[in-house]
Amino acid sequence: MTNIQAAKIEELKEQFKGEVLLPSDDLYESARKIWNAMIDKHPAIIARCATTSDIVRTVNFARDNGLLLAVRGGGHHIAGNAMCDDGVVIDLSKMKAASVDPGARRVTIEGGATLADLDAATQAYGLATPVGINSTTGVAGLTLGGGFGWLSRKYGMTVDNLESAEVVTATGEVVRANASEHPDLFWALRGGSGNFGVVTRFEFRLHPVGPNVLSGLIVYSISEAKSVLQQYREFIAKAPEELSVWTVLRQAPPLPFLPAEVHGKPIIALALLYAGDPKQGEPLIEPLRKFGTPLGEHVGEQPYTAWQQAFDPLLTPGARNYWKSHNFSTLKDGLFDTVIDYIDKLPSPQCEIFFGALGGATTRPTPESTAYLTFPVKSETQSVKAL
Ligand SMILES: Cc1cc2nc3c(=O)[nH]c(=O)nc-3n(C[C@H](O)[C@H](O)[C@H](O)COP(=O)(O)OP(=O)(O)OC[C@H]3O[C@@H](n4cnc5c(N)ncnc54)[C@H](O)[C@@H]3O)c2cc1C
């Protein structure tokens, strides 16, 4: 920091409602850590904004001083774009407020909220919008990148449920983007990820969900994996949109419903959620129990919020992560062979490969309607993400 910059930092701090953290501050070390411990960046300033005007001040400060600006929502981005070296980070972790209008089925939520914050606010009214499967993920980054989870086959991508956003632009202007106001910005926000301004709050459409849903896990031995995957391919192509089933291949965690001798052994698990009346879902999931000889299962009615947090213990912050993903419109036997071959070579018990079948409502918007590219899928196939 030169003296001039130090003076300007004092100016930034004036009237700042949140906290301006510098490398010499006690909170700086923890504030620069994000979910993926592989990311080790050292910003010059972390501005923990508490209000929209804090964000405007910080954007203006970074622009006027020619500093790189990064934005931290929930800090889950694997590549670590929430942090930068030597620049300014807008940290939104103090901005998590949510307000639900149950009559209009709308929620407005601030840019630092997590999925847990969103689900807690909306489930108080038996409502939800489709988001991801790990409750500590940020609403902001997930939405700006597209966003999908257990409700997406029924209700679409997260961006398909975005009604409007309040955005601080690079010029420091506060604008509302929706279908009629700044429609080009609204298009870009829906899947274009960061770099189109700082979103201070999101407004989503909501749908009746839960509060209890039929959900859980059915686990098979890896020796049955190819047959399970082949049957999964046929099953999911015909499954109703209310039913989401993903497959996960990994070493078995020490789950209480699995025999102790299975813990640490390679398995294939079917993870499912039925987004409708649980009684109607029961017969629909029955075939999943007959793909082979299950090693164990934990399926039943449970609060939607509990299922949204079920994978949190496996997805804890602080581990060194490398991820990659692919989109498939068809699942071929050769792909199954390759995946199964690699399961034997996984370097740690935390590693996994999973297939998240999307399809359904996610394929209905035209690819041009948002910046998120929903690649065209033929009606008899499903889009499947493998991570
Ligand atoms: C354990 C785990 C599970 C996941 N599960 C799913 C899943 O089920 N479904 C799914 O769709 N995705 C999932 N993801 C991916 C996740 O959606 C992305 O990593 C997303 O970017 C995380 O958002 P964030 O706000 O936490 O991240 P951040 O790292 O804070 O931000 C991500 C990007 O968005 C930008 N950004 C953040 N907030 C704002 C804002 N307010 N305004 C403008 N730009 C902003 C950042 O600058 C950065 O470029 C998962 C990720 C992890 C680590």
Strand order of the largest sheet: 15-12-14-13-17-18-16
**Category from helices, strands and their pairing:** alpha+beta
Integer average pLDDT: 94
Rg result: 22 Å
Q: Which geometry do the CA atoms define?
A: globular
Bound molecules: flavin-adenine dinucleotide
What is this entry, summarized?
The chain is 24% helix and 25% strand. By secondary structure, the protein is α+β, with helices and mostly antiparallel strands. The structure holds flavin-adenine dinucleotide.
Q: Which labels suit this protein?
A:
alpha+beta, 387 residues, globular, 18 strands
Structure description:
Mean pLDDT is 94; it is low at 376-382. The protein has 11 helices and 18 strands. The protein has 387 residues and is an alpha+beta fold. 24% of the residues lie in helices and 25% in strands. α8 packs across α11 (333-343). The strands form 4 sheets. A 7-stranded antiparallel beta sheet has the order 15-12-14-13-17-18-16.
Question: How is this fold's topology laid out?
Answer:
Layout: H1 3-13, E1 19-21, H2 28-31, E2 45-48, H3 52-64, E3 69-72, E4 88-91, E5 98-101, E6 106-110, H4 115-123, E7 127-128, H5 139-144, H6 152-155, E8 162-168, E9 174-178, H7 183-189, E10 198-205, E11 207-208, E12 212-221, H8 225-238, E13 243-251, E14 266-274, H9 278-285, E15 296-303, H10 304-308, E16 326-328, H11 333-343, E17 352-357, E18 384-386
Parallel strand pairs: 2-4, 3-4
Antiparallel strand pairs: 1-2, 5-6, 6-10, 7-11, 8-9, 8-10, 12-14, 12-15, 13-14, 13-17, 16-18, 17-18
